[in-house]
Amino acid sequence: MKDLGLWLILGAALLAIAGGLIGFGERPPEPAPAFSLVSLDGEVVSLSDYRGQIVLLDFWASWCKPCRTTFPAVHALAEEYADRGVVLLVVSLDASEEDSRDHLLAEGFPTDNVLWGSLEEARAVRNLYGVVGIPHTFVIDRDGLIRFDGYPRNLTGADVEPWL
C-alpha cells in the first residue's frame, strides 16, 4: 500500500510537469490591476496612461543582487522594441527614493519610468500584483491583459513579439 501511494505521488508530479510542457493548466490572460504611483521625476504615472502600448512592468530594488543583474536586460528589451510601442515601467521597492535614483543614475539608466511614491505605496502595488519575490516582471498587452508573469531572466523577445 505504501508503494501505491508513492506511485500515485510520482504520477501526479509527472502529470503536473507534462501539463506544464504541453500547455495544460495555462492560465487565461487576466486584466492587469490598475495603479498610479509617482515617478522618481515627480510625475504621477498610471498604468492606464499606457493603454494601447505594451508594458514591461518590472518590480525591482537597488539592494537586490538578482535585480541588478536582470535589470539591464529588461531595459535593453524595452529599448529594442520601443519603436513598436513597448514601454518599461519599474516599481522600485527601495527604502528611499534616493536609493533608487542614486543607483540608476550611477548605472546610466533613466529615472522617469521608475515609480516609487513611497515604500508603502510601492509595496501596495507589489501586493496588488501578487509579487512575492523580486525581481519579477510582467508583460501587459495593448488591451491591458497580463501575457507574461515571472522571473525577468526568462523574458525574451519571443514573449513580447506576439503582442506587437
Q: Quick one: overall form? A: globular
Got a strand count? 8
**Biggest sheet details:** 6 strands, mixed
End-to-end span in angstroms? 54 Å
Structural domains: how many: 1
CATH fold-level label:
Glutaredoxin
Corresponding CATH superfamily: Glutaredoxin
Distinct helical segment count: 5
Helix content: 25-40%
In the CATH hierarchy, the architecture is: 3-Layer(aba) Sandwich
Find the structural class using helix and strand composition.
alpha/beta
Low-confidence stretches: 12-25
Helix and strand succession? HEEEEHEHEHEEH
* CATH level-1 class: Alpha Beta
Please report which band the strand proportion falls in: under 5%, 5-15%, 15-25%, 25-35%, 35-45% or over 45%: 15-25%
Rg, Å, rounded: 18 Å
For the largest beta sheet, what order do the strands appear in spatially? 1-8-7-4-5-6
User: Could you state the oligomeric state of the chains shown?
Assistant: single chain
- Give the overall average pLDDT: 88
Keywords:
single chain, 164 residues, alpha/beta, Glutaredoxin, 38% helix, globular
Task: Tell me about this structure.
The chain has five helices and eight strands, in the order αββββαβαβαββα. With 164 residues, the chain is of the alpha/beta class. The strands form two sheets. It has a six-stranded mixed beta sheet with strand order 1-8-7-4-5-6. A two-stranded antiparallel ribbon has the order 2-3. The protein is globular and about 40 Å long. About 9% of the residues have low confidence.
Briefly summarize what is shown.
The protein is an alpha/beta fold. It has five helices and eight strands, in the order H-E-E-E-E-H-E-H-E-H-E-E-H.
